[in-house]
Amino acid sequence: MQFNPPLIPGILIKRYKRFMVDVRLEGGEIITAHCPNTGAMLGLIEEGRRVGLSKSNDPKRKYAHTLEMIEEEGHFVGVNTQNPNKLVHEGLLNGFFPMLRGYDAVHKEVKINKESRLDFALTAVDQPTCYVEVKNVHYKKGTTAYFPDSVTERGQKHLRDLMVLRGEGARCVMLYIIQRDDVENFALADFIDPTYTKLAREAQEHGVEIYAFMARLALNAITLAREIPYARE
Questions:
Q1: What is the pLDDT of residues 138-182, one digit of tens each?
Q2: Please, what is the end-to-end C-alpha distance for the chain in angstroms?
Q3: Is 103 found in the same domain as 25?
Q4: Of the residues 47, 78, 109, which one is the last residue of a structural domain?
Q5: How far apart are CA 226 and CA 206, in angstroms?
Q6: At what angle do helices 153-167 and 194-205 cross, to 10 degrees?
Q7: What are phi and psi of 162, to 5 degrees?
Q8: pTM passes above 0.90
Q9: What is the dihedral of CA 30, 33, 35, 41, to 10 degrees?
Q10: How many domains does the chain have?
């Protein structure tokens, strides 16, 4: 996933009202940017952090800039929750994920009932539909990446949806994209959202597959790197 032009560097001043951040650009100008992340962003929102911003030319936007990544301990961490879906879509089309190859078509934003959509459905004439839900991961403790970083009722609902579809004979996959390259494994944050963890374990027992992949970030691109171990217990 390329940023063209590359992201604009700056220094974080503060985040407020959940969706807004003030950033000091090179040269001293202070601008307000959109923060496309509703989570707690634990460990990242500290004054003085280096950040990367994209800029839109859409005149209808109130804030032209979008916060894409924040530097922590010398590594960029992706905080735009829309980017993992773009990465996965590219990866599915290019055959990056070995366990998801062999399908004829990739469908985005698939409606599964009156209330829910899932990120992707993979179809082929000779096998059941495979539903894939993608989650962004940026929080870490030590060398472990964790999801979620705050209670997520929406995430809980997606797990329930996947279990229903699995019970109807579909293949179902939870795909966690870790937007940082300084971790060694992935786990569910039971200490933050125990309900989500319980549902994820129940989903696994029902046959829902769980995978975690790490990405590398720079101001000009985000690149899928490799699968990392999922600590199930």
A1: 999 999 999 999 999 999 999 999 999 999 999 999 999 999 999
A2: 33
A3: no
A4: 78
A5: 26
A6: 10
A7: -65, -40
A8: yes
A9: -10
A10: 2
